[in-house]
Give the backbone structure.
Amino acid sequence: MEITLRIPDELARLLGTAGDIERRALEALALDEFKLGHLSRAELRRLLGFGARAKLDEFLAAHEVFGTYTIDDLERERRDLRRLGF
C-alpha cells in the first residue's frame, strides 16, 4: 500500500528530506500500532525491515517501549545458552 502525505513546502523543509519524513512517519505509525496491540513483535520487525531481532529491540528501547519478559522467554534463552556451552 502506498500512502501520500501532503505537507506544505515551507514546513516540509523543516522536517527533513522526503526519505527522512517517510521513514519517520512509518516508524511512528508502526510503533503506535504495536503499542495498541495491533502488531506483534514479528510483524513490527517485518514492517520496519529489521533483519535481526536485536535491531527491533534497539528500536523499541530507543522509544522507551519495553515488552513483557515471560518464563517462556527465560527458558528459551537458557536453552540457547546451554547450546552455546554456557
